[in-house]
Amino acid sequence: MIRGVVFDLDGTLVDNISFHFDAFRAQATRLGLVMDEATFQSFNGLKNTDIFPRFLGRSLTLQEIAALSDEKEETYRTLYRPKLTPHRGAPALLERLRAAGVKLAVASSAPPANRTMVLSGLGWDAHFDAVVASEGLRGKPAPDVFLAAAERLGVAPDACIAFEDAVNGIESAVAAGMIVVGVTTNVPAATLSAAGARFTIADFESLPADLDALLPR
């Protein structure tokens, strides 16, 4: 019986990944580097402390990572803030699950200011029983953030469904032992299924019957 649902944030509850890509690409251009789609997807879902050393191909100090992260995230927020909107069907699904007594969590690699912009901006601060970030935990694709979310909810991982949009996130939730749903905002369904997603959806208005039957009403 499903007693907990854990949502990734970026690309899942909000369809904002193209804005992250544009911010990364602008920064890469300034640095004389190339951020193409394949490179971006290899990073998608990771936290910035893991992304920037890989992208620049060298070790970085914490100060260097912080400066690069601040630059990129400020650009992203400037681009996305005027467009902030929930992904199709997300508000209705959240209300349905809350009314059914399901425990809800966010498990995100997004930095604090990005999480605040989305959750507060959409009036969702009180919608979730737990918001778990990757600070102090191994980042996705390690299972830590999803395991921590289940622990915060007081629900066994195998009694949770996870919604994710990125391959790294799918692998993280699978490793945590959750039933995983891939959200195809920026990655094809076949790719998410190959990463371990049991179901794939385009949005929260089009749930497959088998998935819908698992979610309490």
Can you give a write-up of this model?
The protein folds into two domains: 4-16 and 85-214, 3-Layer(aba) Sandwich (Rossmann fold); 17-82, Putative phosphatase, domain 2 (DNA polymerase, domain 1, Orthogonal Bundle), CATH 1.10.150. It is globular and about 50 Å long. The longest helix is centred in the first third of the chain and has 19 residues, at 62-80. 43% of the residues are buried. It has helices spanning 17-31, 37-43, 48-56, 62-80, 90-99, 112-121, 144-153, 167-176, 189-195, 209-214; strands spanning 4-7, 103-108, 130-133, 160-164, 179-183, 199-201. It contains ten helices and six strands. The model has no long low-confidence stretch (mean pLDDT 96). The protein has a six-stranded parallel sheet, with helices on both faces. With 217 residues, the protein is α/β, with parallel strands linked by helices.
